[in-house]
Amino acid sequence: MYHSFKRNTNISKYFQQQKTVNFGIPSLDNLINGNIQEGSLILIKEDKDSKLHLFIQNIFIAECISNEYEVSIFSRDVEFPCIPDKITENELINEKEEKMVFAWRYNHLNPPITKMKYDLTKKMNLNDKKNLKIFYDTKLLTSTILENIKNVNRNSVISIYSFLSPLWFHFDKISDEEIYKFLFSLRKTIKETKSVCLVSIPSFFKENIHFNLYFDIIFNLKSFLFTNICPNYSCILNIEKMVPPFGLKENDLDSLKYGILIKRNNMVVEKVVLPPEDIVGVETTSCSTNITNQF
């Protein structure tokens, strides 16, 4: 039978040539699976009770600096971000890894990389990083951010720390209309320059603003501090949106909720398995029962 449909190989070749950026957290990068392509905008909705977003944001910056991307940081809150330094070769050799025993039929497979190459207790020396620019000002304007982004080279990395935090309203008032205009212009500029932009926002201060239209990937962090909900995790990462820049790929994740474990020199993102809700009165060491609606 003759089929008139012909696969467009030019499109597939185009996507293969797309540059991708990693978070620097292997388990999270495996989860995203190459969705951070040029032109991507990522939003981290900050946790109300902690600063856990800074771990993800700082590791992301460390990874981009190490991979020699041109990086620009904008902030009213953080003057000198604590970017983690790489783990040295000697530390990697001396570190005792837990050995996993595989069945003989899986010996030919390489185990997935879950270990970070950054030490969260060590701070990277940023003075000699020529590919990094930090724009810190307690009166930083959205127009200043856009102006500087337009002047960066193509395929750059942009990171905005705690946009719309209380400092953004302390010195001047930014209206909802101005917020929408900025987000629209930011998205337009990032797409035009084929850059990647990561923004953290304490969205609980602006619950009336609809951020979903302006970002391709949205993470929502919740730590559930002072509760018995998921006590084994530092926080819960809820994926609210994950669409590649051109929207030609479906989301094939089997879960949208993941637990984050933070250790001295590692951060692990793993699927959260909730116990059945019909099991009442059974104590577990994972997430508590009857909490699905709290995510």
TrEMBL record:
<dbReference type="GO" id="GO:0008023">
    <property type="term" value="C:transcription elongation factor complex"/>
</dbReference>
<comment type="similarity">
    <text>Belongs to the ELP4 family.</text>
</comment>
<comment type="pathway">
    <text>tRNA modification; 5-methoxycarbonylmethyl-2-thiouridine-tRNA biosynthesis.</text>
</comment>
<dbReference type="GO" id="GO:0005737">
    <property type="term" value="C:cytoplasm"/>
</dbReference>
<dbReference type="GO" id="GO:0002098">
    <property type="term" value="P:tRNA wobble uridine modification"/>
</dbReference>
<dbReference type="InterPro" id="IPR027417">
    <property type="entry name" value="P-loop_NTPase"/>
</dbReference>
<keyword id="KW-0539">Nucleus</keyword>
<keyword id="KW-0963">Cytoplasm</keyword>
<dbReference type="InterPro" id="IPR008728">
    <property type="entry name" value="Elongator_complex_protein_4"/>
</dbReference>
<dbReference type="Pfam" id="PF05625">
    <property type="entry name" value="PAXNEB"/>
</dbReference>
<dbReference type="GO" id="GO:0033588">
    <property type="term" value="C:elongator holoenzyme complex"/>
</dbReference>
<keyword id="KW-0819">tRNA processing</keyword>
<protein>
    <recommendedName>
        <fullName>Elongator complex protein 4</fullName>
    </recommendedName>
</protein>
